[in-house]
Amino acid sequence: MPKSQLRANFAARLIQARQMRGFSQRSLGDKMGMGKERGAVRINRYEHEVTAIGFESLQKMAETLEVPVSYLLADDARMADAILALSHADASQMDLLADLIPVLVENPALLSRLMKVAQLPRREQASALKSLTEKA
């Protein structure tokens, strides 16, 4: 029976988030309230795609790992990284980014120019952004 891609993605994100927080399987399970032994077994089964996680456990896991639920369910690593980065924005930044992302997706040339600015040393970014806005 082929394994679910969703389970594989979840397992990869779980391992990444757990390691990012410096948790062992045992400590994560314990922090989620499952106890050390039972929790270690359960987390191991999630990571090896043996057991699917329920919604309540998924929510508790995301809270314990301090990541959005959507991060744990992201389709791939790039999407997960973007979700994690967005989760650090405050409400006003989130509103601006929600408006900006579709504009950038629809305008690859603008996105390319912004990426070039982002790759500059920080001290050069302000003048490059100013130059970019004068061209628009």
TrEMBL record:
It comes from the Bacteria. Gene3D superfamilies: lambda repressor-like DNA-binding domains. GO terms for molecular function: DNA binding. It comes from Coralloluteibacterium stylophorae. InterPro entries: Cro/C1-type_HTH, Lambda_DNA-bd_dom_sf. Residues 14-72 form the HTH cro/C1-type domain. This is Helix-turn-helix domain-containing protein. PROSITE patterns: HTH_CROC1 (PS50943).
